[in-house]
Amino acid sequence: MAELIESLRSLHSAEGISQIVQAGGLFVLIAIIFAETGLLVGCFLPGDSLLITAGVLANPLNPNHVSSMNIWILNLTLAVAGIVGDQVGYWLGLKTGTKIYDRPDGRIYKRRHLEHAREFYKRYGGISIALGRYVPIVRTFVPFVAGVAQMEYRKFVAWNIGGGIVWVTSLLWIGYFLGQTPLANRLDKIILLVIFVSILPIIIGSLKKMTTKTPRLVK
After folding, report:
1. CB-CB contact of 120 with 201 (8 Å)
2. Model-level pTM?
3. Where are the domains of the chain?
4. How far apart are CA 160 and CA 134, in angstroms?
């Protein structure tokens, strides 16, 4: 268990992500973005931090620049990977249906993750497909939940394409411009900040649940 925790910690660290990007190149990045958005087992993979790091390393002015990485190719291919991933998640939810809520917890699958995504979807509706991109775990489960709820397919596709393009483009280019500044040397701190901001909606939602009191019935 300790080894697994350490592996996950390394996977979400600036050094660990940099090693993934430099060693695996474009195909590994595509696989990770697709798995995190399209497969429920990919919920533990880095998304936001991976995109920012890839952007940093794609900048030719960065000392750690990876020559094989072109920001425009990254932008196109990773956006497609994210969009296709969400389509797969939607299809899986559509095929699985509500019986997924009866499935017991496993090592990776946790029902609470599905519940968070369902609440997020109920609260924001169609726009949750786009907003959920910026929230870890939620971005994995929201497309699936949309499929379970049988969201209108045309509506889902529109939010999926728009959200996928904006998510990948915004984070990639944030990283790209950071790559030519001294802040690139503090990538670990930037990643921690991004992770904190992205999970803030979950934290706020949990706090609201804890502080909301059930009204007492007057007899």
Report:
1. yes
2. 0.80
3. 2-194
4. 13
How many CB atoms sit inside 10 A of residue 102's CB?
7
- What burial letters (b/e) apply to 75-91, b meaning 16+ CB within 10 Å? bebbbbbbbbbbbbbbe
Q: pLDDT per residue over 2-56, tens digit each?
A: 443 444 455 556 676 777 777 777 888 999 999 999 888 777 787 888 898 888 8
